[in-house]
Amino acid sequence: MSLKEQIDADLKASMKSGDKTRLNAIRSIRATLLEKEVSIRVGGKAELSLDQEMDVLSSLAKRRRDAMEQFTQGGRPDLAENEQAELKVIEEYLPAPASQEEIEAVVREVITKSGAASMKDMGRVMGESMKALKGKADGTAVQQAVKALLS
């Protein structure tokens, strides 16, 4: 079952169950995926690749995390809880996140392969590490690992 089919099935199930938070989150995912499909469409119909779908989901998750942080700082815990609930739904469709040890192992491997020796090589190491950990790790966690291993 493709991601799109899974989302459609989950949309129907959440409509029947009456879970408004889940329904809103799935509608948001579906709308963003459709928007991305339309943006890459050239002549006829366009299908998103798995990487493109994961990019969209990662972007949605990052937006929810940022919104949670902003609402918490702004003294709106009710809105932060809503964002947290929607984030949980989005994370169901993302691959399992990499642990800190897995992130560090990938960064070490990239540093060894590229011959990086100092912080000047951070951009190159970050780029390769993010490609290897696409959808599995947050950029902030990868950046912290790269800084720790290069310094």
In short:
The chain is 76% helix and 0% strand. By secondary structure, it is an all-alpha fold.
Describe the secondary structure blueprint for this structure:
Blueprint (H helix, E strand, L loop, with lengths): L2 H15 L2 H21 L9 H24 L3 H17 L6 H15 L7 H11 L6 H12 L1
Helix pairs in contact: 1-2, 2-3, 2-4, 3-4, 5-6, 5-7, 6-7
Task: Describe, in plain words, how this protein is organized in 3D.
The N and C termini lie far apart (about 45 Å). The chain is mostly helical. It has helices at about 5-15, 20-40, 50-75, 75-95, 100-115, 120-130, 140-150. It has 2 domains: about 5-95, Uncharacterised protein YqeY/AIM41, N-terminal domain (Hypothetical Protein Yqey, Chain: A, domain1, Orthogonal Bundle), CATH 1.10.1510.10; about 100-150, Arc Repressor Mutant, subunit A (Orthogonal Bundle), CATH 1.10.10.410. The mean pLDDT is about 90. It has 7 helices and no strands. Pfam families: YqeY. This is GatB/YqeY domain-containing protein.
The low-pLDDT segments are none
* Mean pLDDT across residues: 88
According to CATH, what is the topology of the largest domain?
A: Hypothetical Protein Yqey, Chain: A, domain1
Do you know the CATH architecture of the largest domain? Orthogonal Bundle
Helix and strand succession? HHHHHHH
Number of strands: 0
Terminal CA distance reads 45 Å
Question: What percentage of amino acids are in beta strands?
Answer: under 5%
- Indicate the radius of gyration in whole angstroms: 18 Å
Q: What overall geometry do the principal axes of the alpha carbons give?
A: globular
Please indicate the count of domains. 2
Q: Can you identify the CATH class of the largest domain?
A: Mainly Alpha
The helix fraction, in percent, is over 70%
- Count of DSSP-assigned helices: 7
Structural class: mainly alpha
Protein name: GatB/YqeY domain-containing protein
InterPro entries: Asn/Gln_tRNA_amidoTrase-B-like, GatB_Yqey_C_2, YqeY/Aim41, YqeY/Aim41_N
GO molecular function: carbon-nitrogen ligase activity, with glutamine as amido-N-donor
Pfam family, one: YqeY
